[in-house]
Amino acid sequence: MNGNPIIEGFVEAIELIITLDPQVVEITIRSLYVSLTATFFAALIALPLGALIYFYEFRGKHAVVSTLQTLYALPTVIVGLIVFLLLSNVGPFGFLRFLYTPGGMIAAQTVLIIPLLMGLTVSALSGIDRDKRYTITALGASRLQTVMTIIAEARFAVMSGVLLGFGRAIAEVGTVMIVGGNIRGATRVLTTAIALNTSMANYSLSIALGIILLAVALGVNIALSLVQRR
Amino acid sequence: MTIIEAHNIRKSYGSLEVLHDVDLLVEEGEILGLIGPSGSGKSTLLRLLDLIEPANAGELSVFGIDTVTDRGTWLDLRRRMGMLFQRPVVFNASVYDNVAMGMRYRGAPRDEIERKVKEALEAVGLSRYIKSRALDLSGGEQQRVALSRVLVTDPEILFLDEPTANLDPTSTATIEEIVTRLNREAGTTVLISTHDLAQGQRLAHRVGVMIEGTIAQTGPSREIFREPKSQRIARFVGVQNIVPGRVVAQREGLTVVEAQGKEIFSATSPPADEVEMIVRGEDISLHRRKPGYEEAENLFPATVTAIEPTAPFVNVAVHCECDLVALVTARRAETLGLEIGMEVWVSLQAKAVHLIPQAGR
User: Which chain B residues are closer than 8 Å to A141 by Cβ?
Assistant: First the structure.
């Protein structure tokens, strides 16, 4: 064959996807598994914490929210480095033997998106305006009923935050590369596989994985717009 | 029985003082209208009385229970009251779920909730929307949902904060009708704030005027409109003529006030030497020629200086040593054939001339 390697790559990539190439399927499933699990745990921790920050008045509340917003842009390699150090043999959690396992990657991505989910939860709840809060109080809600009503009312905005967190997790390469180590058949995910195969001039596999990653991102966006239209 | 008793209420947000020296007594079963310009503290006062937020100082009893010493009773007291806000508030749920909210908070049984919600939606004419998403309704419909949501909780006191501002006439009429009926049939005490003077007059048994964070005057609306206690109140209730003058004599039970050389009789006993005459434009009658038989104590010729139509009425400014503005119907203005520079006769009853002491003297 003497065609353009990029066009050939595209053609082969489509083939890989259509034929459900085992390597492509395996990497895609692992990517989804790691990021979905990380999003689940992050939501489990961040949503109640975000709600606590919103509902309780304390000194330095404003500073906490600003810090969270700064951490939205937390560099993934920094989180990777920190989690790596924590999980390494010399670190405090070395005994867990999480380094270079999907479990470690889940932990790293969880840490990465917790600030984002917390911050977005606070702003989702803050989106419930004063008149609504007055109305809830005036209708005779107890403290707990007030909290439940506000959370229920903000549910779609909170869900958008969770989707954004998942989008950030599945698209990032820094933490999974450092903590997972991109081990074939064990910790290789979409982003790390694309990075590796591109540097090895293995374009078709990179393009195939890239298309899948884009499709996932697109899916998240469609879900977001559906949720936000509510 | 006095159902709300407030003394010396004060409320600030940061350095902004919103309410000060508020004293208010509300009798069970009355409709009290709170009128006043925007920013005079009407909404804040209603929120304090509904125990949505606490005052900074003062005494407040609701249903005869002191709310300042006993904060533990607030939720129970609040559940005996209800409030409708100016901006329609609905939650992202079905109309049914919106109306059921207050009853669910109170732990009402499911079948009772269903019965009362259906009844309430029937009353506001929204039965067909019971399963619709409340956010899809128009502003007027949303406000009617909000009203049903309050009504199903059977409030003993109902607070309405400018409930019909920016609403279409149909929704306004529905809401006014329901509120009056509720007051008449269930004996619900109603406090309604409004900047619509006509609405205040139409609905309320008694009116309180709020000016700059305090209640400046309370009384039957007739009294507020005809005998305002101060210039500010007079201006707010739409008095066209506030004329400074001085008391020169008292004759046959009437006070004679001189304003720019013109003597005018008033039935008010003089509150001071230097006074302001408060005369509503609609109390001044204009005639083409000197009326043969006229009961009014003040009768004098004048010249028309300006004609300003404010359908269905016409403001007519006349000059007769002092300047006055009369409010006549458009039809009457046509019959009189009014034009600028024309000579007319002005008649004005002494009891329509209210006197207050001049401000700042």
Answer: 105
State the total domains in chain A.
Answer: 1
Task: Give me the sign of the Cα torsion angle B191, B196, B200, B202.
Answer: negative
Beta partners for B326?
A: B316
Distance of CA B92 to the CA centre of its chain: 33
The alpha carbon of residue A155 is apart from the nearest alpha carbon of chain B, in Å, by: 10
Determine the length of chain A: 230
Cβ-based neighbours of A1, under 8 Å, separated by 6 or more = A8
Nearest to A138 among B83, B91, B106 (CB): B83
How many CB atoms are located within 10 Å of the residue A177 CB? Answer: 21
Q: Using CB atoms, which residue from B78, B89, B93 is nearest to A140?
A: B78
Residues of B within 8 A of A131 (CB-CB) are 85, 87, 89
The two three-digit tokens of residue B226, written as one number: 């005809």
* Strands B262-266 and B254-259, bridge-based pairing: antiparallel
Number of cross-chain residue pairs from A and B with Cβ atoms under 8 Å apart:
50
> Six-digit token pair at A146?
């007030």
B50 touches chain A (CB under 8 A): yes
Question: Which range marks the domain in which residue A90 is found?
Answer: 5-228
CB contact under 8 A, B101 and A139: yes
Domain locations along chain B:
2-231, 239-357
CATH number of B2-231: 3.40.50.300
Picking from B180, B202, B359, the residue whose alpha carbon sits closest to that of residue B276 is B359
Q: What is the interface pTM, i.e. ipTM, of the complex?
A: 0.84
- Name which of A6, A2, A43 is nearest A204 in CA terms: A6
Angle, vertex CA A20, rays to CA A15 and CA A26, nearest 5 = 125
Here the CATH number for the domain that contains residue A23 is 1.10.3720.10
B75 touches chain A (CB under 8 A): yes
Query: Is the Cβ pair B92, A156 closer than 8 Å?
Result: yes
Name which of B92, B105, B146 is nearest A140 (Cβ-Cβ): B105
Among B31, B354, B23, smallest CA distance to B221 is for B31
For every one of its 230 residues, what pLDDT tens digit does chain A have, with 9 covering 90 and above? 557 888 888 888 899 899 999 999 999 999 999 999 999 999 999 999 999 999 998 999 999 999 999 999 889 999 999 999 999 999 999 999 999 999 999 999 999 999 999 999 999 999 999 999 999 999 999 999 999 999 999 999 999 999 999 999 999 999 999 999 999 999 999 999 999 999 999 988 999 999 999 999 899 889 888 887 76
Written out in words, the top-level CATH class of the domain with range B239-357 is mainly beta
